[in-house]
Amino acid sequence: MAKTIQAIRGMNDCSPTESPLWQWVETQVREVLNSYGYLEVRMPIVESTPLFARAIGEVTDVVSKEMYTFWDNDEQLTLRPEGTAGCVRAAIEHGWIYNNEQRLWYMGPMFRHERPQKGRYRQFHQAGVEVFGIANPEIDAELIILTARLWKKLGIDQHVSLQLNSIGSLEARANYRSALVAFLEQHQALMSEEEKERLIKNPLRILDTKNQALQQVLDDAPKLLDYLDDESREHFAQLCALLDSVGIAYEINPKLVRGLDYYNKTVFEWVTSALGAQGTVCGGGRYDGLVEQLGGHAAPGVGFAMGLERLVLLVQEVNASIPLKSAVDIYLVYQGEGTALAAFQLAEKIRSALPQLGTMLHCSGGNFKKQFRRADKSGATLALVIGESEMLNNQVVVKHLQGGVEQQTLDIEKVIDYIQSQF
User: Residues 359-386: pLDDT tens digits?
Assistant: First the structure.
């Protein structure tokens, strides 16, 4: 017997029993984004490697350690590790944002080569939003309010909390970096080798370290908010006032910096304690210099991304009333000479008249007892039964599989009207 081939570690299958929940979560995301007037875009999974190096930053963990990169002839390509860089590239390439505002969203797989664990995989899925051409804090507030509305739709709003910060301008951040490095150099004995490397390459990332001893020391470190430029300070104050006005609770977290180099001013994360170590459900912020950095005309930008695996896990964990419906509403069973033809014709009439319903034809033979077992297992509400006598009399037996209603025999011309009355 040939050796079986299994999925690559960290790249998971989604079973038929799991996919209805995924579809429901994705539908809620689409409905909220569409209700705010955002437009869907779809970008390639593979991009030129320099795109991510320039956008995300060569010294970030994502670019230096986690990307899936390969050569295609003489060109270096990468499976996208996040969506913002590709969306900015597409917007520049196709002229979507030249002297124009855009509110865009996307959904799809991303790839990072890291140690797989619950809620963190090598192939994972994100829904993301990118807004271009709007510099004021109103749009920052809208993105946060939009996500808060989504949490309510998903039934997880009581289990997530908002952390907020401003990391200021590039100049303010450079001044802060110098002060932070001077402070951290006094505590290198507490640092791991990786943290010592970050101290040289990307010291702000040390602020979200999981090293408990270093975390305690960081409580006395210089605060980024104290180094903000006046414009960033005013932008942040206006954002907080807007969130206060609509009752969005938040915690200002001075250690929140996000892990990618392109952020400036607003950064935020929605976090949960219900998923253990993988507590970030959604994160984002401003990246006003990124469009120009990637070769476009200067345009402000702001966005966020949410991990769908973690959203699905969180919904499973805390929402016991997910309104999932079976993919099958009507199950046709038939037995006897000539009944297959009648069943096929009826199934197609139902699909034409009531395309919103799932209609399944048995197809695999067997007696009525076997067929009804399959009908029950399908989760259908109604079974339509055609035997030889029903076929000869141009009739159908209607059986309610969920119980409570007696079965009845209908003329075939009345079946569609009856089905419509039951859904």
Answer: 999 999 999 999 999 999 999 999 999 9
Would the annotation count 286 as a binding residue? no
To 5 degrees, how large is the angle CA 353–CA 356–CA 358?
A: 95
- Give the pLDDT confidence score for residue 115 in this predicted structure: 85
- Indicate the average pLDDT of the chain: 92
Neighbour order of strands in the sheet with 39-40: 39-40, 102-111, 123-132, 301-307, 280-286, 264-271, 161-166, 251-252
| Nearest-angstrom CA–CA distance, 381 and 393 | 24
What is the mean pLDDT of the segment spanning 173-178? 84
Q: Is 27 annotated as a binding residue?
A: no
All CATH 3.30.930.10 domain ranges of the chain, comma separated, are 18-169+228-318
| Fold exhibited by the domain 18-169+228-318 | BirA Bifunctional Protein; domain 2 (3.30.930)
Structure token pair of residue 343: 């069943």
Tell me whether residue 130 is annotated as binding: yes
Following DSSP, what letter does each residue of 216-232 receive, concatenated? HHHTTSPPGGGG--HHH
Domain with CATH 3.40.50.800 in the chain: 330-421
Structural domain 330-421, CATH architecture: 3-Layer(aba) Sandwich (3.40)
Read off the tokens for 239: 């954002």
Overall average pLDDT of the 213-241 stretch: 90
Q: What is the mean pLDDT of residues 325-331?
A: 92
Q: Which residues contact 362 (CB under 8 A, 6 or more apart)?
A: 331, 332, 333, 334, 343, 371, 374, 375
407 annotated as belonging to a binding site for a ligand: no
Q: What is the reported pLDDT for 63?
A: 87
Flag whether 83 is marked binding: yes
Q: Give CA angle at 83 (71, 250), nearest 5°.
A: 145
Whether residue 122 is annotated as binding a ligand: the answer is: no
Query: Does residue 259 surpass a pLDDT of 70?
Result: no
Report how far apart, in Å, the C-alpha atoms of 152 and of each of 146, 148, 259 are.
Answer: 10, 7, 27
| 263 appears as a binding residue in the annotation | yes
Is 47 labelled a binding residue? no
Find the mean pLDDT for residues 101-127. Answer: 93
322: its two tokens: 């997910």
Distance CA 419, CA 413 (A): 11
